[in-house]
Amino acid sequence: MSARIKLIGTGILLCLALGATIFCALQTVQAIQRFEESRNLATSGDVSTIGDWMTLPYIARVYHVPENYLDQWLHIRDRQSTRHTTLRALADQYNRPVDSLIHDIQRAIVTYRKQHTPHTGNTQHDKGQPPTGRKKP
Amino acid sequence: MSIFLSTLLNSLQSYGYPALWLSIFVAAVGLPLPIGLVLLAAGAFAALGDFNVIVLALIATSASVAGDCLGYLIGRLLGSKPLEWLEQSRSGKRFISPRTVARSRLYFKRRGGWAIFLSRFLFSALGGIINLLSGIELFPFRYFLFCDIPGEAVGVVIPLALGFAFGASWEAVGDVLGAFSLFVVGLLLVIVLLIRLIRYMCSVQRVKTGHQLTEVQNVTDVAPIIDPPAPSSGHLPLS
Question: Is the model's pLDDT at B66 over the cut of 80?
Answer without folding.
Answer: yes
